[in-house]
Design a protein that fits this description.
There is one protein chain. With 183 residues, the protein is mainly alpha-helical. The protein is 64% helix and 0% strand. It folds into two domains: 12-52, no CATH class; 60-178, AhpD-like (Up-down Bundle), CATH 1.20.1290. It is built from ten helices and no strands. The chain starts with 11 loop residues before the first helix and ends in a 5-residue tail after the last helix.
Length: 183
């Protein structure tokens, strides 16, 4: 159960965000409803997420796997569910997304995808456990811009997952559609 009411004041900004979200996602995502209590936070998040959507240096599958691995590591069911749904719409193989919680034991991933998920887990750890060897291995396969985008997407997912988890936001039914097991 959410730790904050999900019925914030219906400001003009909130109504606009709600209209856009329902049109885009079919529902008002709970994180946006929570942010509606602080219009400047809601506006900053909307601007930031709009900007993130335009980043395209990193392969979409690598990006999705890194984001999903971070969400699984933190334990954010909302992020896992929504991340699966949005990533499959972007063309990422659903079998890979379903296997993220048990990626070490799955045979659906390439070596690079495994490196990316290991890096995502290490960057998500508190404190981070990223090693020079880990980064060197990624730099053999990714250019500097791709590595920076990968790292930032992991950091962004940490913000999302920690925000949602701290406020008790859980799946809105995406789990029923996506079949991703909880970690």
């Amino acid at each position: 159960m959410a730790r904050i009411p999900l019925d914030p004041p219906r400001t003009r900004l909130y109504r606009l965000a709600e209209w856009y979200a329902r049109r885009t996602y079919g529902v008002m995502p709970d994180p946006l409803a929570a942010m509606g209590h602080h219009p400047r936070v809601l506006l900053a998040d909307a601007r930031f997420e709009t900007s993130l959507a335009k980043w395209n240096r990193l392969d979409p599958t690598l990006k999705a796997l890194a984001v999903m691995a971070s969400a699984v590591e933190i334990g954010c069911s909302w992020c896992v569910d929504f991340g699966y749904w949005i990533s499959t719409q972007d063309g990422v193989d659903p079998a890979k997304l379903r296997a993220v919680p048990r990626w070490r034991d799955s045979d659906v991933f390439t070596d690079l995808e495994r490196q990316v998920m290991a890096y995502a887990e290490a960057a998500t750890a508190t404190p981070p456990t990223v090693s020079d060897e880990m980064v060197d291995g990624l730099r053999e396969r990714l250019d500097d811009a791709e590595l920076v985008e990968l790292t930032m997407m992991i950091a962004v997912e940490n913000v999302r997952s920690r925000f949602n988890s701290a406020l008790g936001l859980t799946s809105q039914g995406f789990r029923d559609r996506c079949e991703v097991p909880a970690s």
